[in-house]
């Protein structure tokens, strides 16, 4: 189709307009790196540190950070390919990424399933780790469930983020084509798909023996992904730094916290029982807006408010993230910033590793007990492993075996 040819005048103008999206924003890697550490903590079974992750203080959590930043990263990694090489080559580039993520999902499942089975077979533990992940039916009938794993018609709990990401990635060629028509064609399609997803019509079955759905409905979550994508491609202008917007965002985060978090609600209830009763009465009315599976409206609003404040705090091009002093604290922060950024740059490898490591760290805590020392050691060692994986992944991606001559 001529309208999606990179040689057309329209395409060249659009390509020049979106040139900034080819430059990786340091804020993207920083916040995505933070999300990777939070995701590890959130998935360690019985980790006391998980009581203090963002999910305990509002509607949105680290999942939103991951999806939004993935949309931004995809705008850099894949969006430009559509414009420089054409729609078909851009689609091929996305298909290759889908292939990589698909096999990462498959490998993650089988490694974790094997690890849990090995722990149960060892007889060293009183509990069943296979049962803890609800994988009994897989091991009871692996022949039929194997087909479900590979076709994504069986998506066990704990293994549901990457399948959602796969479907969202597969929608990218559609939105790139729609954007050739107009921005509003792409935007209204995304909002329309999200709105239909809120009705439950687009729910995907997660297992053949029950009515359980995918925990993350990709048709709902695509709205957040393509919001990040649109910001990074320049389809949506960056919001202004405004005191009014800062106050609105901050007040929304604070005032909505008791409605979006059981932890904050308990604090409010202990402070004033009447206020707690009033909030308790409202909770059923806001259930659909808080829904995580279909990505309810309040989650979207909460994340946008949080992202805006994070964007303002980081400063233009992330300049406030960089320590300018020469003292010890500045030097420590520079090292930490380097580590966090590296983790954010290698998010797929780090994410897959963290999901596997989290279960094994939970086993360590089961054996060592969950006292202050063991919990601190387990989490810090987990963080160190994520950093190590990020550097190893970056080393392999640099193709050091290739000749420089």
TrEMBL record:
Keyword Membrane: yes
Keywords: Membrane, Transmembrane, Transmembrane helix
Keyword field contains Membrane: yes
Name of the protein in question: OpgC domain-containing protein
Originating organism: Ruegeria spongiae
Pfam families hit by this protein: OpgC_C
Transmembrane intervals: 28-45, 65-83, 95-119, 158-176, 183-202, 214-232, 244-262, 297-314, 346-365, 377-396
């Amino acid at each position: 189709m001529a309208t999606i040819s990179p040689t057309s005048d329209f395409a060249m103008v659009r390509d020049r307009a979106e040139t900034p999206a080819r430059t990786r924003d340091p804020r993207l890697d920083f916040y995505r790196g933070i999300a990777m550490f939070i995701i590890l903590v959130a998935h360690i079974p019985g980790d006391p540190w998980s009581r203090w992750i963002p999910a305990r203080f509002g509607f949105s959590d680290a999942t939103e950070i991951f999806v939004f930043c993935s949309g931004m990263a995809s705008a850099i990694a894949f969006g430009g390919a559509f414009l420089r090489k054409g729609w078909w080559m851009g689609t091929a580039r996305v298909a290759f990424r889908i292939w990589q993520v698909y096999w990462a999902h498959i490998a993650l499942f089988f490694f974790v399933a094997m690890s849990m089975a090995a722990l149960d077979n060892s007889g060293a533990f009183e509990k069943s780790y296979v049962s803890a992940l609800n994988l009994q039916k897989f091991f009871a009938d692996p022949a039929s469930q194997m087909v479900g794993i590979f076709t994504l018609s069986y998506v066990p709990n704990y293994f549901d983020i990457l399948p959602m990401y796969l479907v969202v990635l597969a929608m990218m060629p559609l939105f790139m084509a729609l954007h050739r028509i107009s921005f509003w064609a792409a935007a209204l399609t995304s909002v329309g798909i999200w709105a239909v997803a809120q009705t439950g019509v687009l729910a995907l079955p997660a297992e053949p023996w029950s009515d359980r759905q995918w925990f993350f409905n990709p048709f709902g979550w695509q709205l957040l992904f393509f919001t990040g994508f649109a910001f990074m491609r320049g389809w949506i202008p960056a919001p202004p730094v405004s005191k009014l917007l800062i106050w609105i965002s901050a007040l929304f985060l604070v005032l909505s916290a008791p409605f979006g978090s059981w932890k904050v609600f308990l604090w409010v209830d202990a402070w004033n029982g009447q206020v707690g009763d009033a909030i308790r009465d409202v909770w059923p009315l806001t259930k659909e807006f808080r829904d995580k599976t279909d990505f309810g409206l309040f989650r979207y609003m909460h994340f946008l408010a949080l992202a805006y404040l994070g964007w303002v705090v980081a400063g233009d091009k992330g300049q406030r993230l960089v320590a300018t002093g020469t003292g010890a604290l500045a030097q420590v922060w520079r090292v930490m910033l380097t580590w966090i950024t590296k983790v954010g740059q290698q998010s797929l490898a780090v994410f897959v590793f963290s999901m596997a490591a989290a279960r094994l760290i939970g086993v360590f805590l089961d054996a060592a007990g969950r006292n202050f020392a063991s919990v601190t050691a387990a989490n810090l060692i987990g963080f160190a492993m994520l950093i190590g994986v990020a550097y190893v992944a970056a080393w392999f991606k640099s193709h050091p075996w290739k000749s420089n001559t």
